[in-house]
Specification:
This protein is an alpha/beta fold and 320 residues long. The chain folds into two domains: 174 residues, 3-Layer(aba) Sandwich (Rossmann fold), CATH 3.40.50; 117 residues, Homeodomain-like (Arc Repressor Mutant, subunit A). It has 13 helices and eleven strands. The strands form three sheets. Strands 5-2-1-6-7-11-10 form a seven-stranded mixed β-sheet, sandwiched between helices. A two-stranded antiparallel sheet has the order 3-4. α5 runs antiparallel to α6, α6 crosses α10 and α11 crosses α12. The protein is globular, with a radius of gyration of 21 Å. The model has no long low-confidence stretch (mean pLDDT 92).
């Protein structure tokens, strides 16, 4: 069983602490429903093992002190209030010192928005691009001039370090970690249960293609994610967002590692996965829903991406 360690400290946001623990609880419930053993456990740890007061003044009781942790497969650093970035909490340097061993051991670490302050204080990540909430980038750059910071609407991942730039980024990063550990199909099932919206409006799980900081291309990707049913003409798309066709293709490939038409195909495949899980639509209906009138053609695209036809993929998720 993988141990997810959530570090709690004075002034951290309780909402983020419990959103992570609730995510793991939902994963565990789904595993139980599927007749599987639980894959993850949660350990909450404070610097000294004592309870802390969250930013909203609620007491959170840890399971142990950091020194009592014997194994960690993912370490989560929740965010703090913005003003706390300018204060000195005696426990935060202890947390940063504790993290150094895990950074050197390449343990996955997930820092949520302003929690990156504790991560940067280790001074071991000077060559990594770290993201945080846009409102605090200038402050963080002044505080840690040797680090590289950027804003991001979701999260960035550099080898074993996740950093988020938004509240939504927490869920995105956790789903990405889940996909790495449990596979795409289980992550898709989890996403379908987590997101309280219609399946065709759920964001695609294409995180590795959004792991960049070209904001203009992220805007194009957002539009494609929402308008995937449209018959996309690259020349018209480029003009819509103020690019030349050549420049859009160049920038898009540089940022996402895919040309725009291939990215759109991946979005449509991802949307089809969610419809296969959460609806009883037949294959022809699903193909039409994601923008293809020829279901045989889409089935070939889907199989080229997943190694299975749509029908086979639906059946395999029922057997997980």
């Amino acid at each position: 069983m993988k141990n997810i360690v959530i570090i709690i400290y004075e002034g951290c946001w309780a909402m983020s602490v419990f959103s992570v623990s609730d995510f793991v609880r939902i994963v565990t419930i789904l595993e139980e429903l599927l007749g599987k053993q639980a894959s993850f456990s949660i350990t909450m740890a404070s610097a000294n093992g004592k309870s802390i007061k969250s930013s909203s003044n609620y007491n959170i009781q840890p399971d142990c002190a950091l020194v009592d942790i014997t194994s960690a497969d993912l370490i989560v650093i929740p965010p703090m209030e913005g003003p706390q970035l300018n204060s000195t909490d005696n426990n935060q340097p202890r947390i940063s010192d504790w993290l150094k061993t895990y950074i050197n051991n390449k343990t996955p670490i997930l820092s949520l928005t302003t929690g990156v302050d504790i991560l940067a204080a280790t001074h071991l990540l000077n060559n990594k691009l770290l993201c945080s909430h846009w409102a605090f980038i200038s402050l963080l750059k002044r505080k840690y001039p040797l680090n590289k910071f950027t804003a991001h609407e979701s999260f960035l991942f550099d080898k074993h370090i996740y950093t988020t730039g938004s509240l939504d980024g927490t869920l995105d990063a956790l789903l990405n970690y889940l996909a790495q550990e449990k596979g795409d199909q289980f992550a898709q099932i989890c996403a379908s249960h987590l997101l309280a919206t219609q399946p065709n409006k759920m964001p695609p799980l294409l995180f590795k293609h959004r792991n960049h900081t070209d904001n203009a291309i992220l805007v194009v990707q957002d539009w494609l994610d929402s308008n995937y049913q449209t018959d996309i003409n690259i020349e018209v798309l480029a003009r819509k967002f103020g690019f030349s066709e050549r420049n859009l293709k160049r920038r898009f490939v540089l940022a996402t590692k895919l040309p725009p038409n291939r990215y759109l195909q991946k979005v449509r495949v991802d949307k089809a996965k969610k419809l296969l899980i959460s609806t009883t639509l037949n294959i022809k209906e699903i193909a039409y829903q994601v923008g293809y009138e020829n279901d045989s053609f889409f089935n070939r695209i889907f199989k080229g991406s997943t190694g299975m036809t749509l029908g086979q993929w639906r059946k395999s998720t029922q057997e997980i």
